[in-house]
Structure formats: C-alpha cells, structure tokens
Amino acid sequence: MVAIPTAASRHKPDLAALPDADLVVHARTGDEMAIRVLVQRHNRRLFRSARAIVRDDAEAEDIVQATYVHAFTHLDAFRDEAELSTWLTRIALNEALGRVRRHRPSVGLEEIDMTVESGRGELLQFPTPFSVADPETELSRGEARRLLERAVDGLPDEFRVIFVLRDVEGMSTEEAASYLGIKPATAKTRLHRARKMMRVAIKKQLVGAFSSLFPFDGARCVAMADRVIGQLRAAQPNGA
Prior knowledge:
With 240 residues, the protein is an all-alpha fold. 64% of the residues lie in helices and 0% in strands.
C-alpha cells in the first residue's frame, strides 16, 4: 500500500515532464505529486473506457476513482515492463464489467460470438479541438458532441465498448481485443457493426433536423413582404 507523506520540502524535478515509468518510481515512495500527475494524465481514457460499459457519468467516475485506489495501493503488483496505461485500463474495464455483471449476471462481452461480415466500415471522425474557439463555434461543437454521445450510448454493450476503445481512444484492433479478452477477428466484426450502427443512428437524428435548415420566417419573412410591397407600390403609375 502506498503511504502518502504529509509534506515534501526538498526540491523535485518537473514531474509533469516525466514518463509514466519514472512517475511510478516516485509514486511507489508515496510521492503525492507524482500520483496527481498520473491521475490527470490517464483520467480521460479511463473515464471513456468505463463509461462505454456502464453508460452513466457518475458511475463511470466512481469506477475511475476505484481504479486509481486499487492501482496505487497495489503498485507492487505492477510489472515495469508493461505500459501503465494498459494496466490501469484493464483494471477499469474489469471493474466496470464486474458492476454490469452484478446487475445483469448473464452479461459477458467475451461470450458473444458474432458472424463475420464482409466489407469495412468507414472511420467516424470525431470533432477535433480548434486553436481559437468563439462562442458560436463552441456551441456547434457541443451540439455535435451531444449527437455523437447519444449515438454511442445507443449502441449495444459489446459494440459500444469496442467502438470507444478503437475509434475514440485510438487503440489498435489487437490491443482493444486483448483488453476485452476476445479474438481480433471478433473485435473487427463488432467494430464494423458498431460503425454501421453509428452511421444509421446519426442519420436518423439528422433527418429530423433537415426540415429546420435555412429558416426564413419571423422578422425576416415579414421584412421580405414589406420590401416586396414597397417595390410594387413604387412601380405603380402615379395616382393608381
């Protein structure tokens, strides 16, 4: 178990610039700042991975916290030849899957066998950050993010988790398959199906919004009518 010291007065290197392996060395001595850096560095991946399984922000956050507590109290079990991110993600996935199975005992991602389909799905591009974002741009990005999140949440469990690990987190198919304990071929099949379902879900959400594109109503419509009437009056012969 890692003991957190109450204070550290001596000068320390810039921990944020250190690789995970060096930070683990510091964390094993109970260095609180090293632990903070590691937590901040891996928060997003762990949250996304957990949420892909439980589909609940609060529970995913709780899983991430439980993951860190388990990891930092069992650092002696971490093998330095492995990637820390890999170890942490596996802990988070196991915790998330364990919670799902406790609620639904029959659920098991590794037990689902899908029939291989031909063809490849198109990679769905997620919005990328802009260097300068004005309020209107931020609003548009927020709406796009919410649309994508709803579509991801609508995927069945076994497809949602492979989609998040592969297309959101950028893992290789082999790496994602190893996390989930499934064959790479199964992972490829599920990813293909997930991408296809994502395109269908997004299309359904967008179709309902097409009728509201390029609105020309309200004050704009009234102003146009006023201008037309004005022009017609001006074109009439005097006295008409």
